[in-house]
Design brief:
mainly beta, Umud Fragment, subunit A
């Protein structure tokens, strides 16, 4: 079975309830689990965690995420010590275009350096930087860029079905 990008928060077979009206009156904030459509092609709906909001400065150093110069607490993440080396798993943003080869969505590869300043990625206006909790098995904003506000469909609330019956009814945080 493939590793779920949101483990341990969500297993790949979990089904969730999301509030599709929540962001009509609230802005996504750091830590929210958002449901959204993929930014470039018609694709299934994704769920990821918001790491940065518009104007935030993001960087990863030795697998530690920093937002606006402060290391954030992420008790929900896991790392797979057996995972293959990933160009953006340990350190992000990239320092050179060579690191982008075959690693990122082409459109993002064309834009990423516009938003990198002093070794940090600045989240553009009306955009949200997201990552999966299973960092070594997550295709996320590191690889395809921040999510536009108009692509966000809703806020994940709780698990309504799971093969692991003990997970049913759990609030997702």
């Amino acid at each position: 079975m493939a590793a779920s990008s949101m483990m341990p928060t969500l297993a790949s077979e979990d089904r969730i309830v999301a509030d599709m009206r929540y962001y009509g009156s609230h802005a996504p904030k750091q830590g929210d689990l958002i449901v959204f459509t993929f930014p470039y092609q018609a694709h299934p709906i994704y769920i990821k965690r918001v790491i940065g909001v518009p104007g935030d400065r993001i960087k990863i150093v030795d697998q530690q995420v920093y937002v606006n110069g402060e290391r954030i607490s992420e008790p929900y993440i896991i790392h797979d010590l057996a995972a293959q080396s990933d160009p953006f798993g340990d350190n992000f943003p990239p320092q050179s275009r060579e690191l982008l080869q075959g690693s990122v969505q082409p459109e993002w590869g064309d834009e990423i350096f516009q938003d990198i300043h002093d070794g940090e990625l600045t989240v553009p206006p009306d955009m949200y930087f997201t990552m999966g909790d299973n960092r070594d098995h997550s295709w996320d904003s590191r690889y395809w860029g921040p999510i536009a506000r108009d692509k966000i469909l809703g806020k994940a609330l709780y698990i309504y079905w799971s093969e692991d019956k003990s997970r049913i009814g759990q609030t997702v945080r």
